[in-house]
Design brief:
This is Dipeptide transport ATP-binding protein DppD. It is a peripheral membrane protein. It is found in: Cell membrane. The mean pLDDT is 92. It contains 13 helices and twelve strands. Helices cover 34% and strands 23% of the residues. It binds iron/sulfur cluster and magnesium ion. Residues 249-250, 286, 288-289, 292, 294-296, 299, 304, 317-319 line the site of iron/sulfur cluster.
Length: 331
């Protein structure tokens, strides 16, 4: 599969009154065409900041990308002039957020908003724009799309509004769709419908998807690969099967134990005790040490090296790495 996006050693900081917060601390991953990568982790782990960096939507100041590269179709995005980035944003890469109302303009009809998105980036006639709007509403499963073009956002339910937002994001036929907690504001039944919609859209359009979520349960159905983030780092990444059935990082295992699973009957949910470390002064060693039931002396001192468990499965935990014994001996 062809590589669409390559993120390497991404570091992002925010300057606050309390000091500099290192929100993303050396994140690397690839995304292939037509693939769905889920980035999972607790709030504040850096997953949204990673997504916003790809869109170059980090408010600067107080934010700053301090290191790394983001290549989209072999083009470096971090140093791209803003006027060129604007041609990529919403056209080649689109993003949708948790709350559909913030993405919709309450004073414009749905038809006008969809057409507007298209007209901003392409030279289409009003008739073509309308036709495309109907097509997209149909794609996202809005019944009688033609009649609904003249309705306003408040005339739709929350689930329908999120479908409209997805239609807006897709109208310019992007190659990458980034969805940041797209189902969090919706009830469980609607959540499942929206996830099915993502799956169907991907089948029909071939768009690659980065799905950001704090909920591992959400990704079970649609992710191809899962990257687990903790304290600004990807601590484990693998195929869905590798993460769900062969996860090796104690944090990933903790996350899996804290979500309901259909495939496990003894359904006792165990929350992970403690809180993530302060990212004003991140620890030198493994950031999970204070919460980790398996922590060893080396963990606190040295950040774990990346270990390849397979060609697709990488983990950063000393338990998986024989080099830990050498470090212990060298103390
Ligand atoms: Fe736990 Fe050590 Fe592995 Fe970190 S490196 S997750 S503290 S065992
Ligand atoms: Mg977030």
């Amino acid at each position: 599969m062809e590589k669409l996006l390559e993120v390497r050693d991404l570091e992002v900081s925010f300057l606050t009154y309390g000091g500099e917060v290192q929100a993303v601390r050396g994140v690397s991953f690839d995304l292939h065409r037509g693939e769905t990568l889920a980035i999972v982790g607790e709030s504040g782990c850096g997953k949204s900041v990673t997504a916003n960096s790809i869109m170059r939507l980090i408010p600067q100041p107080p934010g700053r990308i301090t290191n790394g590269t983001i290549q989209f179709k072999h083009k470096e995005l971090i140093t791209l002039p803003e006027n060129q980035m604007r041609k990529i944003r919403g056209v080649d890469i689109s993003m949708i957020f948790q709350d559909p109302m913030t993405a919709l303009n309450p004073t414009l009809t749905v038809g006008n908003q969809l057409a507007e998105g298209l007209k901003q980036h392409t030279s289409v006639s009003a008739k073509e724009a309308k036709q495309k709007a109907v097509e997209l509403l149909d794609l996202v499963g809005i019944p009688n799309p033609e009649e609904r073009l003249s309705l306003y956002p408040h005339q739709f339910s929350g689930g329908m509004r999120q479908r409209i937002v997805i239609a807006m994001a897709l109208i310019c036929e992007p190659e990458l769709l980034i969805a940041d907690e797209p189902t969090t504001a919706l009830d469980v039944t609607i959540q499942a419908q929206i996830l099915e919609l993502f799956e169907r859209i991907q089948e029909q359009t071939g768009v690659a998807i980065i799905l950001i979520t704090h909920d591992l349960g959400v990704v079970a159905k649609i992710a191809d690969r899962i990257a687990v983030m903790y304290a600004g780092k990807i601590i484990e990444v693998g195929t869905k099967k590798e993460i769900f059935y062969h996860s090796q990082h104690p944090y990933t295992k903790g996350l899996l134990n804290s979500v309901p699973r259909l495939d496990r009957r003894e359904g006792k949910l165990i929350p992970i005790d403690g809180t993530p470390p302060d990212l004003f002064s991140p620890p030198a060693g493994c950031p999970f040490t204070a919460r980790c039931p398996k922590a060893m002396e080396v963990c606190d001192r040295v950040y774990p090296l990346e270990t390849n468990l397979s060609s697709t499965h990488q983990v950063e935990c000393w338990l998986q790495d024989e080099r830990a014994t050498k470090l212990l001996a060298s103390k």
